[in-house]
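Quick start: what a row looks like.
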Amino acid sequence: MTTETLTAPAATYGERKTAARAARQALGADKISGVHYRIVEAGDRFAWTPLEAEDAAPAPTAQAEPQSLPTPAPEPVQAEPAIRVAAAKAPRAPKVEKPARKIADNGPDLPKGKLGVVIGMMQRQEGATNEQMQAATGWQAHTVRGAIAGAIKAKRGIPVTTEKTEAGLVYRIAG
């Protein structure tokens, strides 16, 4: 495909990249390795023209206008104000400080917090029922059971025994 037989279409494109894509498609895949077309601007539109062999490396300032596209006179551009005024927002309410959480200090051997409370209750001679541990920690029944099975038995390796009494299931730490 030579540039003598290929002429640029009279079409114009809204974006420079669209004109470049059309030029590459018309010139074929073998021409992509080098630049064999020139994108020209005609007002707010773009077009492409094929380059001749002697025009392959044009000077950066020289641009050829296509013969089929008239160049309209540039219109004066009105500048928009650079400063935008933001809409007034309502002031934020001040943050309410929450009271500090009480962390149970259960002695040097027990973990601090609710898990230490549960372990401390189970270390008593009478042990503790699930309902008693729920009341002390504020946890739900499944959370107490999960803490006993996971954090106390499995992770810490503390042996826990259960005994069924009239009060219900009593949990004790053996030892």
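That is the whole record. The beta strands are 37-42, 45-50, 128-129, 160-165, 168-173. DSSP finds four helices and five strands in the chain.
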